[in-house]
Amino acid sequence: MTNILLLILRRDLRVSDNPALHRLSSSSSHGFTNLLPVYPFSPNQIEVSGFIKDGTKSPYPEARSQTGNYWRCGPHRAKFLAESVWNVKETLETLESGLVIRVGKPHEVIETLVDGLKAQNHKVGAVWMVSHEGTEEKRDEKDVAIFCKAQGVEFELLTDEKYFIDDRDISPENQKDLPDIYTTYRKSVEPLREKPRAVLPIPAKGTLPAFLENIPPQKAPFEIPDRLEELVGALVSPVRHFLPSMPAFPEGADSAHPFKGGETSAQERLVHLIQSEGMKNYKTTRNGLIGTEFSTKLSAYLAQGCVTARQIHHALLEYENGTDDRFKDVDGYGEGQNDGTAAIRFELLWRDYMRLCHQKFKHRLFRLAGFKGEEDGGYKDDEKKPKWKTPVKKDAPEDQDPTPERVREIIDRFNAGTTGMGLIDASQRELLHTGYTSNRARQNVASFLAKHLGIDWRYGAEWYEMLLVDYDVSSNWANWQYVAGVGNDPRGEARIFNPIKQAFDYDKEGKYVRSWVPEVSKVEKLENVFQACTLSEDDAKAAGLEGNIMITDPVKRIEFSVEGKPARPNSRAFYRRRHRDPKSSQEDGGASVDGKPKPAPAAIVSSTASSIINTGSESSEKQTGHRRGGSEGYGGRGRGRGVGGGTRGYQRGSGSARGSTRGRGMGGPGITVHTPVHVHAPQEGGTVAFSHRGTHSVRGRGRGDYGSLPHQTPGHGHGRLSQGSRGGYGGRGRGGYGGYTPADQGAAYVHNVVAQREQAVIPPPQTGA
Ligand SMILES: Cc1cc2nc3c(=O)[nH]c(=O)nc-3n(C[C@H](O)[C@H](O)[C@H](O)COP(=O)(O)OP(=O)(O)OC[C@H]3O[C@@H](n4cnc5c(N)ncnc54)[C@H](O)[C@@H]3O)c2cc1C
């Protein structure tokens, strides 16, 4: 009598370091005569209509997302996934086993197999599957367990061992009460190099319980292809046209992620990264934007379980300990952990942490208000101003600005990469074409949608879910929450990435933007490449950009100064447009999306600010906790004085602004701010002066009166704001800054004012628009 084990594979598409296969191959005490590894393409997570050949309608609804109605899995990941599944199948075949590929929810697939096998007089002894984080994943596990129970089949849920620190080694405290700050978690598990368990070997040929010859067929109307190309076709063809007018792949642009899915490619990539010194140099290259070598590109393999974090760790150990000849010629061989390898471990732990957050917050990871926010999610709240702009009319307040129709338009342009903001557009187009974009670009893109535009960030998260080749439910949604300010970023709303400053810092020659946004490839000045609307009429004409929507109707304008020149978009055409068209009103550096005249732009000191902290970097954590008091004040380190008014309204408080270290702040008279205002702008009766000093500090002198702004009328006030001498930020320099409104992008100004390396312009005091 047979005793068959059905092993469901989901995101464990590897044969090495695979606990289930290891257990089955290393002992016969399990008692199974046969093993059927099964991979189900689950119809709620990936569109499966491409498996139907006879024109029948799919019994499943389309696999689309909830908010944006995008495909759950777009063409890039569909292809990568097909390759990964096929690779496991081929490797298992070399081990005299195999893989059953099926379409259907896991419990449906299991039911068909169990029924069919029983009909052949086989006994199915057990079903195993690895536990994965996720609401749908948990539901699938439950459904399989219920089915097994009803059938008298044993069911076992195995630990997911592809993370850096195994679940079994996570302390009860961390499991029960995971810290909300990554650094706290990291410190609780250091030293990282000692944490991962040993990797498990690949089962030897012929050691797995035998595969079966006669496998019950796939349920109609689906047909399972028997060639990889057909499998790719079945998965990709329904979702290929995900954008109404897809731009052509830019000539000369190269994918940073040309990699094929599967365990074999993952292992090759890992060895290459060590041999090419990519791992050793990781810390200095990881913020790159172009090419295959600037970061590991292991994320897609990790997401599908083609490689485990502990395998990466062990390969690094071999190199660091000098125990693998393949790496003997690599600089640093046998010399222990170096900056690069330590940084990789640090990032892998971020990945762990994102999953643990998902485990902790469960469905709250998908909520608009984030895991901390209230259940309603922030739309249409009678008491408070709705925080997020929505394209859905019924959800939007009547006076939503911009209108839902305009928000829809902006989202479409954001997706297509035609916002006019170079770095954002380049990243979004790279994503469209290749399924990959760097971590640096992702942070900017997410920040742009959520913080500069104030739009429901779930549209962005779902767009990423569709297009990212490395989409991972925990990493994607937790990172989006983090950047949107509703997740576990201790700086929350205050962290805003200035995409122009970021472009200057990370795309120093404009190569990245020019290569993915070919329209600006002939534009000469970087400031124009990074924000096309700053082109003068003549230059736009010369570059063939006359009438281009990125210039005539950018979704956002950000003030920016280059080497002391005035900061704002400065073409005459722009000012003419501004006066003609209220939608093109002067950008205030971050206050609102579009569509209404802005308050005075006068004292936009400079928006070249670096409020940029890299998710996952050590420095981001160092700058945490800089808020205290009733307002969100920032104190620099040291004894300088930061004086800021408190805010009233939704941020009620006494107005003391204090640095978390030793900055001191004095409360100002308080302000009531219901619309975004330039809190650092000189308002009536005052000036603000900031001067550049050194590389890392901004020296501020003088005072700007801005407090007590009348309700919704920025531009009047008699409060007081002083930037203490050497206004530092993030622990640099001294002095503090406080009392700004956290509403919308008001925070950006704070960063702008206190940012490093920027000087100020001192425009005449102005009142509201
Ligand atoms: C808005 C946003 C969405 C994201 N969505 C995803 C996603 O769906 N899937 C995904 O794997 N990563 C996601 N990330 C994290 C990060 O951008 C990618 O892991 C990284 O860019 C992948 O490239 P790499 O493998 O070359 O990374 P490397 O820089 O080489 O890092 C090594 C590994 O560490 C892990 N890692 C690095 N940074 C992070 C991070 N911030 N969070 C979690 N893990 C990290 C990844 O597994 C990565 O492969 C997202 C980040 C942001 C800001």
TrEMBL record:
Its biological purpose is as follows:
May have a photoreceptor function.
Name the site position(s) for Electron transfer via tryptophanyl radical: 388, 457, 480
Question: Which cofactors are named for this entry?
Answer: FAD; (6R)-5,10-methylene-5,6,7,8-tetrahydrofolate
Q: Which family does it belong to?
A: Belongs to the DNA photolyase class-1 family.
Q: Which organism is it from?
A: Rhypophila decipiens
Protein name (record): Cryptochrome DASH
Write out the biased-composition intervals (Basic and acidic residues).
375-385, 392-404
Q: Which domain of life is it from?
A: Eukaryota
